[in-house]
Amino acid sequence: xxxxxxxFNLHLYAALIAGAxxxxxxxxxxxxxxxxxxxxxxxxxxxxxxxxxxxxSVGEIGAAIENAFPGEPIGAxxxxxxxxxxxxxELNRGVVSIDPYTGKVRGVRRRADLVDQTLxxxxxxxxxxxxxxxxxxxxxxxxxxxxxxxFLLLSGVYLWWPYQxxxxxxxxxxxxxxxxxxxxxxxxxxxxxxxxxxTGVVIGFEEQTTPLFYRLTGSKPSNEPDVQILAPPGAKAIxxxxxxxxxxxxxxxxxPFEINVPQTKEPYYVRxxxxxxxxxxxxxxxxxDPYTGKVxxxxxSRTAPAxxxxxxxxxxxxxxxxxxxxxxxxxSLASLMAVAQLVSGLAMWWxxxxxxxxxxRSAVGA
Length: 366
Description:
Layout: H1 3-32, H2 35-42, H3 44-47, H4 58-68, E1 76-78, E2 87-91, E3 94-98, E4 105-109, H5 114-128, H6 137-160, H7 175-204, H8 206-217, H9 240-250, E5 255-260, E6 268-273, E7 284-288, E8 295-299, H10 306-319, H11 325-365
Antiparallel strand pairs: 1-2, 1-5, 2-3, 3-4, 5-6, 6-7, 7-8
Helix pairs in contact: 1-5, 1-6, 1-11, 5-6, 6-7, 7-8, 7-10, 7-11, 8-10
């Protein structure tokens, strides 16, 4: 058997074995690229506000929520860094959306919200087939599916190279038509799919790749200390707004987007993002003593250890967050191209199988 024939067979059977998982990766990945935007659109009454005048302080936002829901404790605040998106606060009943300009409560998103549950389920399917226990087998399956996808991409280019055909010949969905679709879609999306597969494999095997990044860069993780706050006798805690100002001063140029309401012995945990940090979770954080105002820990996405910055960059590339909407759109479409590749490949295999069976029946009849 020639090398080319062997590689063709490996390409075919690898696709048949892992195709369903790659199909799931592509379909769910195309949705996840716009997870936050989909959430906002489907909750548009809660999400969108009209920018007008001064943004209220967190203290004023808290007072408005207290007035609407007397006696109900607030666990944390999410402060939008976009002028047309509402602020949110976590309550026992759910997540409250509030207009940051007027203090008007726009509504409550219950914890059993169907949109939230659906998007989270899609996310978990993509990461681990929604199978976490025991030993997180779903993540291992999807990670190795990413490895198979890398093999399919590289072997596919090798098989295509002698012909270098990128045009599609329409023959009533014949095997030739499906082959042309497979070739054209594959070669035009190759670079983007290669980026998705490579960065996805790095994330899937993060227990091995993250330490490797640190070793390659000669850096070490900056672990946040586990602190317990003891209130000095007669001390009065600083306000949420004061804690936010301290966090801004600790990381100049970064915008806070999330802060907790400390429980007993807890500090303030503030999450921030710089203008280039387009990921919903941000990459910068500051811990503040609620009584002294002292910064207990600070890590900036710009000055974090090199290993951490490599991990962050890999994730931003994989999700498409690195350049915002344009890169999200490209990688979302690339994810769908993986689906198209599997569909066209399966169609070719089925056509070939049908023709072979017809020939065999004819031979038996003769």
